[in-house]
Amino acid sequence: MISSTIGIWNYWIVFLLMMIGLFLVIGRKNFLKKIVGLTIFQTSVFLLYITFGKIKGGTPPILNNAIDTVYSNPLPHVLILTAIVVGVATTALGMSLVLRINSEYGSIEEDEISAQDLVDYHDQIETSKKIDTKFIQ
Amino acid sequence: MISELIINAFLVTVMLAIGIALLRTRTLIFTVVLTSAYSLVAALMFITLDAVDVAFTEASVGAGISTILFLAAMAYLPKEEEENINSQILPALTCILLGGILIWCSYDLPEIGLLSSPVHQHIVPDYILGSRDDIGIPNIVTSVLASYRGYDTFGETIVVFTAGVAVLVLLKNNTQTSNQKNKNSKRKVS
Q: pTM, whole model, 2 decimals?
């Protein structure tokens, strides 16, 4: 019973961590928090993959000369190595977008930015109405 | 064998604690530090799961470089997250539902470390033997990354290059607009 619970305990926690990451992305309005949530989600997916590759009593997949060695599965490791580097590139791009938004709007809260957009939109409509009335007169 | 799994279960529970702390905090610098700690504990877990290459990449790139990126960006950003006005019930419900379904499905996943699980059956023995006989590099991860799946690594390089160019373009405009704003404010003063 205990060993079977420990056998899938990793999966449970990894799924909970994924959900924490997803909640940070869709539930919070702060852009930096959203990017942190993406990072959390990514790292938990990495953990899931590496967990699949583990073999009980295995060694890291580096060849040695002993005969009876069991190597853990190297293929998930290769996938995740690529994914980590791509993940940092994504983070860098997201952070530079956040910096750009901050210099344009002076805020990184989603609510404030959409409110400012709404005000701008109303201003545009007002000015276009004034131009129209001038033409009619 | 069982001690490995117990260490694993402990480390992953530490990660859950860090995740819950992330949900509760509102100070952004604290968020960044917690993310760094999360990556470091993940690196420890990768070592216990026999993925040494992944562990040092995660420790240097995930915990090192991305923390530096976050801290550098924090210099220009507000320090506190604002209180949410809208209710968070709908996102929370979505996450709880999805997490419940995933945990329900986890009973069908193979237990950790079974040699008979489907991941280990198909092509892995070929790669392990080929790494010794065809390529001659003792580290199997390196020989797969650089030789068998070299095209993937090439694609990864292209992605990183594209992201770097995009970051440069975005931040270049950023400094230009701030210069223009400074000029405008100076004009107003004079």
A: 0.85
Residue A119 has pLDDT above 90, yes or no: no
Query: Domain locations in chain A?
Result: 2-105, 107-137
| B113 burial via Cβ count (<10 Å: 0-12, 13-18, 19+) | buried
B189 min Cα distance to partner chain A (Å): 21
Nearest by CB: A15 against B99, B139, B173? B99
Could you read off the pLDDT of B113-157 as tens digits, one per residue? 778 888 888 788 788 777 777 877 888 888 888 888 888 889 999
The CATH fold of domain A2-105: Helix Hairpins (1.10.287)
Q: Which residue of B has its CA nearest to A10?
A: B9
A78 within 8 A of B145, measured Cβ to Cβ = yes
Spans of all domains in chain B: 1-80, 143-190
A29 contacts in B (CB within 8 Å)?
Answer: 82, 84, 86
Minimum distance, in Å, between the CA of residue A110 and any CA atom of chain B: 10
Residue B190, min C-alpha distance to chain A (Å):
24
Q: Cα separation of B47 and B110, whole Å?
A: 21
